């Protein structure tokens, strides 16, 4: 290993690369990682010297707080390579700000912008060969933080580890996605952690999702916990409904995660002349629109899949199949967005940031 020092980050380069073992045409989402990771520890009330080093497992004491009390947060973002081999991020400030919001909600220390952004930039530069060009190809970036203090004492940890790992991905088609509208389970509640990208939110939604899978549905559409009458999110994505030619999506709240894809699609749709209404969307109006034929589309929105069209939904044991649409708004917006992200179309919004 060779050790160099740049911009205060210690860089320990791997002497070998795994890149030749990877089939970039057949990547299963989030399962392959690059040669390096970024790491910065928080101890004695301070962020310590950051390091980039070879990707490898690490040891933790069995009493480490994250295992017992779940102080764990993450982000999901992507980097793209253009036809001139330049690498671009998409609205990285949004992810950085949201990461620290999540940190505050979980009583974890905020990560300084310099550590987050410099770490991200230098890690991407080092593993740049892993970023492939072309529509749909991207580097999925997973910044995360865990409580590393020891002792089974139910208090916030004094020690934390912030890391960034990278996973090359290609665009994926989720196939037919049928969803079940939640009538009992909830993803989030007022006063809870639904607006934070906290690991526990995901753990808590696995069980209802497994039950939905067993009933023949790929995902759950979450409703508000108090009344189960308002449509809030689809699985781990924000959700849009198209009734006639209007797109509807719920306003973000304590229960609804402020997705970057969601806010981007709202702006894109408006710029394409599509009417967008941001307001609570009722289960009853969805059922009504499905019955009278005005419901045209439902789709999820998130960084991983970008846009994920839904083919039908079930509510109170009645299944409603959506019409098959030739030129869906979902695909129109997905095309537009991935073209901007992959720099195949001009970014008039100023969303893309060069590495
Ligand atoms: C991450 C996430 C989203 C999507 O956010 P993006 O910033 O668009 O990736 C939506 N809902 C939940 C619950 C999430 O965790």
From TrEMBL:
It catalyses: L-leucine + 2-oxoglutarate = 4-methyl-2-oxopentanoate + L-glutamate; L-valine + 2-oxoglutarate = 3-methyl-2-oxobutanoate + L-glutamate; L-isoleucine + 2-oxoglutarate = (S)-3-methyl-2-oxopentanoate + L-glutamate. The modification N6-(pyridoxal phosphate)lysine is found at residue 197. The keyword 4Fe-4S does not apply. Coiled coil: none annotated. The keyword Transcription regulation does not apply. Gene3D superfamilies: 3.30.470.10, D-amino Acid Aminotransferase, subunit A, domain 2. Keywords: Amino-acid biosynthesis, Aminotransferase, Branched-chain amino acid biosynthesis, Pyridoxal phosphate, Transferase. Pathway: Amino-acid biosynthesis; L-valine biosynthesis; L-valine from pyruvate: step 4/4; Amino-acid biosynthesis; L-leucine biosynthesis; L-leucine from 3-methyl-2-oxobutanoate: step 4/4; Amino-acid biosynthesis; L-isoleucine biosynthesis; L-isoleucine from 2-oxobutanoate: step 4/4. GO terms for molecular function: L-isoleucine-2-oxoglutarate transaminase activity; L-leucine-2-oxoglutarate transaminase activity; L-valine-2-oxoglutarate transaminase activity. Its EC number is 2.6.1.42. GO terms for biological process: isoleucine biosynthetic process; L-leucine biosynthetic process; L-valine biosynthetic process. Its cofactor is pyridoxal 5'-phosphate. PANTHER family: BRANCHED-CHAIN-AMINO-ACID AMINOTRANSFERASE, SUBGROUP IIII AMINOTRANSFERASE. Acts on leucine, isoleucine and valine. Belongs to the class-IV pyridoxal-phosphate-dependent aminotransferase family. This is Branched-chain-amino-acid aminotransferase.
């Amino acid at each position: 290993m060779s050790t160099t020092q740049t911009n205060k980050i210690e860089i320990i380069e791997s002497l070998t690369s795994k890149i030749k073992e990877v089939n970039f045409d057949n990547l299963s989402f989030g399962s392959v990682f690059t040669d390096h990771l970024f790491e910065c520890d928080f101890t004695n009330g301070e962020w310590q010297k950051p390091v980039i080093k070879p990707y490898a497992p690490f040891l933790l004491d069995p009493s480490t707080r994250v295992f017992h009390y779940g102080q764990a947060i993450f982000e999901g973002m992507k980097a793209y390579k253009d036809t001139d081999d330049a690498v671009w991020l998409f609205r990285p400030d949004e992810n950085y700000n949201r990461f620290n919001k999540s940190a505050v909600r979980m009583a974890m220390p905020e990560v300084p912008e310099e550590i987050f952004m410099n770490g991200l930039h230098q890690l991407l530069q080092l593993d740049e060969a892993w970023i492939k060009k072309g529509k749909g190809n991207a580097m999925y970036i997973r910044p995360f933080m865990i409580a590393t203090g020891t002792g089974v004492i139910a208090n916030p940890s004094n020690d934390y580890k912030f890391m960034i790992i990278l996973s090359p991905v290609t665009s994926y088609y989720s196939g037919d996605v049928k969803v079940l509208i939640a009538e009992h389970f909830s993803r989030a509640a007022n006063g809870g952690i639904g607006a934070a990208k906290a690991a526990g939110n995901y753990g808590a939604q696995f069980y209802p999702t497994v039950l939905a899978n067993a009933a023949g549905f790929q995902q759950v559409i979450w409703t508000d916990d108090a009344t189960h009458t308002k449509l809030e999110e689809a699985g781990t994505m924000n959700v849009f409904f198209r009734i006639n030619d209007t797109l509807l999506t719920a306003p973000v709240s304590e229960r609804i995660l402020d997705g970057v894809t969601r806010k981007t699609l709202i702006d894109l749709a408006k710029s394409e002349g599509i009417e967008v209404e941001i307001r609570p969307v009722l289960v009853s109006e969805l059922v009504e629109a499905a019955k009278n034929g005005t419901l045209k589309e439902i789709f999820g929105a998130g960084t991983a899949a970008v846009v994920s069209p839904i083919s039908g939904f079930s509510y109170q044991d009645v299944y409603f199949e959506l019409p098959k649409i030739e030129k869906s708004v979902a695909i129109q917006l997905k095309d537009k967005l991935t073209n901007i992200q992959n720099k195949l179309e001009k970014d008039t919004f100023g969303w893309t940031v060069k590495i």
